[in-house]
Task: structure prediction
Amino acid sequence: MPQDENLHHATSLPFLKKLGLYTRLSGPGWIQAAVTLGGGTLVGGLYLGVIGGYQFLWLQPLAMLCGVIMLAAISYVTLSKDKFEDRPFELAKKHVSPFLAWGWLIATVVANVVFCSAQFALGADAVQGNLGGSKVNPYLITAGLFALSLFLIWLFSGEGKASKIIDAVIKGLVAIIVLCFMGVVVTLGAKGAIDWGTLFSGLWPDFTALFHPVDSYDSYLADSGSYRPFWEDYISNSQRNIIIGAFGTAVGINMTFLLPYSLKKKKWNKTHRELSRFDLVLGLFIPFILGASCLIISTASQFHAQKDGLVNEVAYHEVLDKRLAAEYPDFKTFSPEKQTTLRSAAPQIDKELSVMLAKRNANDLAKAMTPFLGNWSQLIFGIGILAMALSTMLVHMMINGFAISEAFGQPGQRKLFLIGAAIPALTGLFSPVIWAGTVKTALVVPASVIATTLLPIAYLIFLLLMNSKKALGEELPKKRLLINVLMGLATSIAFFAAYWALVGKYQSPDRYAHYFGLVGIMGLTLLMGVGIWGFLRRKREKRPLR
Result:
């Protein structure tokens, strides 16, 4: 049965049968899940579990809900227009601002190129640290990932059955990620390692964590003496930064650029609007929540507020040294011998809090799980993390292919698409040197500032387009009060999170981050003004600019 007939038939089906049909027809949502279930989610989930425990389980669902609201609007705008010249990028240029539209595209390319290399590095770490390949040359691993990803992208760029292979691969990779982390939680629950009462209470939003430490630290803070204010500030700031960061980055700038092209690639149109909303829930929201929540639960059960938790020395020293710097302002200038002596002489409570608050990586979590999972621990985490890396690098390449071909006015043109997709793969090939040391810092700071600045601008573009009669014509929603309330809330949160992140960089002692933060704050304010002014100016014109 052709797809459109399937959709017509779906209107008369009971809900569960309709759900089954839409699950089979879904696709773009899974691609969105593949890019968000990457290294950023891994690092964020690990630290959420460490510092907030089960108390932060509400955060990821709420953050992703805001992202899904905006992606649903992007989907509506995309599917409402059939003409080639009415692509969202062109609509943004004509009806909002060419400056913002090009900024959206350029920020997407920058994010893809820089952060794709992080996924190659993550994949290499999984092979070397979790899958027994410690002696394998990292360039051999990244070369293998490079060849595999280019082959799969080449399949995707074609038509017919070949292009459908990548859909199946991405769905499979997302399923592997979710199942690996769910399996860990099921095992922990069966062995009594999860406090289910505290877990369920953590599903209720608690915004007081923006201002003070969660209750788990009360007894330790009571024993911390004159340095209690330091620890309270340290924990509160860490909690606040991760809460705001999660709200600003659940959906990345490149995800907003990808969705229209993945919808058009599937040849969806107005009749697919309901399917597109189900697709975002089934393919993005549910897998992301399951994967991210299971990661947080696993980490919280092993590390949160545990003074004897497994920790690596570098992460432990990073926290303890900040406490010692509060007592000895010149601590960083001391000789290594003197620093070691002061660390050893630090009060026991400070050492315990440093253990609790130190960041963990995937290898730390795999080791901590060995008593529960046995020798399978490293394999399970290795497979899950490698699937994370591969799925996310594929989608970064895919997005870049669409962005580069759009920049030349030929979105999806195969040769341009493949050239664009190969660019981030090349940075990934050399990730062992790119994603380390000073090179990493020089790339990540400006890239994160650009992506952070432009994400709320992308949201603003579609909030304005959803209220533009000239852009949507007869497809403009008639009753859109609720739509504007939800989109306005999501956009406001994105702006708040972006400003918070940029202010953090501006206040950084690192001059490099400080100046980029300053530029980001001024740029975000300017772009917001340009966008609103451009929209209002075009709205007053008799005909849209061409």
Residues 131 and 382 are 6 Å apart (CA to CA). The longest helix spans residues 98-130. DSSP finds 26 helices and no strands in the chain. The chain has a mean pLDDT of 87.
